[in-house]
């Protein structure tokens, strides 16, 4: 009889849902495909999925809130968010930064047919340049100095604008993340000649991005989860999925 009771209890336990993961409110930034996709997209985004799976591997459930970075930081400091993505330690504060979980790669992009050669940041002074918003603050002191001296340098809040300017021949060089540029090129409307070959000029080092959390224990759990998904192949599978979006 006791054996039957034990077996019945085990069966009931197996049918019950697993203990719910602890929810965390995380600021994820505005749409920036393929890292953070538009809300209506079938996929959440490369960066979104990496953070989500790293937290899940340590027993947390990410409740994403799409916010401008400055707004997310203000909410963090007011203890109204548990964390935020896509930061570096330059934001300061007493919160807890994760290990880098993703790297952005900013490049200068030109049309191959133009034959432009760029080896140093100051080479940009010879050409008209369109960059993403606040690039002069994020790409290092040499770039900031160049931008201050440049007479035909502009920054644009919508990065797709850079792609349009380049393929329409209205600007010589655009500066931005390589994956974002490739993704947005696929989204451009005709009749822009987007089939033109482009050159990527590696003028900038890779830019590591971290998550930041109010609780050091959550930061440690995120780091542990990140190691887990790197080790078990989940990270590589996510990267491959988003890379496939950019194939011709």
TrEMBL record:
Q: Return the Gene3D superfamilies for the record.
A: Periplasmic binding protein-like II
The record, for InterPro entries, names:
Solute-binding_3/MltF_N
Which residue ranges does the record assign to the Solute-binding protein family 3/N-terminal domain? Answer: 24-242
Please list which residues make up the signal peptide: 1-20
Superkingdom field: Bacteria
> Which UniProt key words apply to this protein?
Signal
What this protein is called in its record is Solute-binding protein family 3/N-terminal domain-containing protein
Organism encoding this protein: Noviherbaspirillum aridicola
């Amino acid at each position: 009889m006791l054996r039957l009771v034990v077996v019945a209890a085990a069966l009931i336990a197996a049918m019950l849902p697993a203990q719910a993961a602890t929810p965390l409110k995380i600021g994820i930034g505005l749409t920036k495909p393929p890292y953070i996709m538009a809300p209506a997209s079938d996929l959440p985004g490369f960066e979104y999925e990496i953070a989500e799976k790293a937290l899940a591997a340590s027993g947390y459930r990410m409740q994403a809130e799409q916010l401008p970075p400055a707004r997310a930081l203000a909410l963090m400091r007011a203890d109204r968010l548990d964390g935020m993505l896509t930061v570096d330690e330059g934001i300061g504060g007493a919160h807890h930064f994760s290990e880098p979980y993703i790297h952005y790669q900013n490049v200068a992009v030109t049309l191959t047919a133009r034959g432009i050669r760029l080896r140093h940041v100051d080479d940009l002074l010879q050409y008209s340049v369109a960059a993403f918003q606040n690039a002069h603050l994020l790409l290092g002191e040499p770039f900031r100095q160049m931008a201050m001296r440049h007479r035909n340098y502009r920054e644009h809040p919508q990065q797709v604008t850079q792609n349009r300017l380049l393929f329409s021949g209205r600007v010589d060089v655009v500066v931005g993340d390589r994956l974002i540029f490739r993704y947005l090129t696929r989204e451009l409307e005709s009749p822009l000649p987007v089939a033109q070959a482009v050159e990527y000029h590696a003028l900038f080092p890779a830019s590591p991005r971290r998550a930041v959390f109010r609780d050091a224990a959550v930061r440690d759990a995120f780091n542990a989860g990140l190691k887990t998904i790197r080790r078990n192949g989940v990270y590589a599978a996510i990267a491959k999925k988003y890379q496939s979006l950019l194939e011709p």
